[in-house]
Amino acid sequence: MSQPPRHPARKNRHALGLARPIMLAWLTYAYLGLLAGLFSGGLCALVVGVALSVLWLQMLGLGTAILALLCLLPLLRVRLPSPPGFRLTARKTPKLFETIKKIRRKTGGTKLDEIRLTEDFELRLLLLPRLGFFGWPRKILLIGLPMLQLLSRKEIAALLARQFEHLDGYLDPRGAWLYRLSQTWPALRQHLEARDSRLAHLGLGPLRVLLSRFEAASRLFVQDHEYQADELGSRIIGPRIMADALIASYLARCFLDEQFWPRFWARAETSQKPQAPHGTMRAARSACTTREQNERWLRAALEHSQVDNEPVLYERLRALGQVPEQPPLSTYSAAHVLLGEALPHILKDFDSHWLKIHARNWEAHRTNMREAREKVAVFSHCEPENLLARDQHRYGLALSRRNPLFGARRASRSDPGRNRGQASG
Question: What is the pTM of this model?
């Protein structure tokens, strides 16, 4: 197959799409600056009023400063929750940190504050502002153990390179700045609105309107910035490897969603206790997934995005000038290479943690499947049209519960593959 052409016209569309979000971002900062200015001005008026013994100036300055402070405090003190996962160190996983360091040198990127290994299928950057809407974020890289197990070292390196475009904007500084705001401001707003506090709602004030419009305007350029991140990954690692990384992440997600976790939870019908999932994940993929199955998943992924705010895979490959082909399966996983000697201990800790958290889910699912099996046995001898509407509903629910997908979807956080974080973003 010949390589599809790149699309330089997208750059023009990207530039045009930045105008409205930039304007709204500056208006938001202007509002924050106005509150800070009113607070400073109120303090100055209070000091001058005290110095000149002017009572009305003192009262005006004190009132202005207090009102501005009441609006500022919730905007400064709002915090996002810390992410789950285990913190990695350079001493225990030196190869992973060395890989990240090499990529950071090539992109001129800033240093990460923390790297966490999670049980979700993800590789994404998380920003936790120390000063709320005023910024100064902690930069945390979240890497999912399932992704490290199912992708190769080069594919993970390509996806890592993408993150530094989001973080520093090597190719598109303005787009990266807006991208970071689009990842933090909505989360801060939702966290603040969730508080049952009049002070929090007072702090939001007109900011709520600006933020809602910024979120609406940012949807298009967030997708376009994914192309910029893909481009940086292709420059650092190579266009074919970047394409392979995107395809491999899509195929691995499909494997988890449609094969691994459904079959894993289906064992609850016959097994009283669950097996450790993380230690068997890569071996299960090699044993269960065929090339024909991967081809079907790839065709589906070329038409539909699996993750919100991400472009369709076909368009991403087209922008890279690469054809959609199944990537070669590496002998060793990225987890084996990058985590090294720490991998057995990490797998043991993750599996122990998973079993501890989800033992009750397993027992509940086992009970549901046993009850569903009994109901299916009762209703299977009857013709569906002869059943009452209530019994038809019970029969249908019992059949759905016997479907392994039901258990995988019901269990809360039991399925890393179904987490909605940026798989490749």
Answer: 0.85
